[in-house]
Amino acid sequence: MVRVVAVSGSRREASTTRLALEHALAAAEDAGAETELLHLGDVDLPLYHPSIDEQGDSEELTRLVREADGVVLGSPVYHGSYSSTFRNFHDYCSFDEYRDTVVGLLATAGGGSYGATLEHMRSTVRGVHGWVVPHQVGIRGASREFDDDGAFVDPNLADRVEKLGRVVAEEAEMRAAATARANADD
């Protein structure tokens, strides 16, 4: 069974990023993956310092990403890019965490613009050799897209977010099987 971890780059308890990632993880679980959500608002993660190897919960968080077959990264849009919370977490991660890992991307916008955020996430994940799936999700006006029970108001948006979770789980499964075959041939 493959393992899919979602990382919410929001610090808000009632985060729409977190809520959307929960929907993506439910779909990944339905596709056969074991799942876990890392909500960065709930962890101790000091500002990244390149001269200090481990700080706060960084060792545990990077281990979870490193051991995952797939990762779904989510961030709210802040000033046309990802949040500082997401960036700080992402600075702790390197080739060791993302090399050949299947990665899905999700951005939630208070207004209507999320394209640059997804592009920034895409390029930084590729920079550490993560394999970003083509299906990515941006949510405009995210606070209006969920009802009081946390369900999506728009069924088409629900389908897109669920597809992201399924695609990450399925691609992770295919890559894990290919790696196992390659290792068996050695």
UniProtKB/TrEMBL annotation:
The protein's matches in Gene3D superfamilies, at most eight in alphabetical order, are given as: 3.40.50.360
Tell me if Repeat is a UniProt keyword of this record: no
- What Gene Ontology molecular function terms does this protein carry? oxidoreductase activity
InterPro entries per the record?
Flavoprotein-like_sf (IPR029039), FMN_Rdtase-like_dom (IPR005025), NAD(P)H-dep_FMN_reductase (IPR051814)
- Keywords linked to the UniProt accession: Flavoprotein, FMN, Oxidoreductase
> Any idea where the NADPH-dependent FMN reductase-like domain is?
3-140
Q: Which cofactor does it need?
A: [4Fe-4S] cluster
Q: Is Oxidoreductase a UniProt keyword of this protein?
A: yes
Q: Which family does it belong to?
A: Belongs to the SsuE family. Isf subfamily.
Q: What is this protein called?
A: NADPH-dependent oxidoreductase
Per the UniProt record, the source organism is Halomarina oriensis
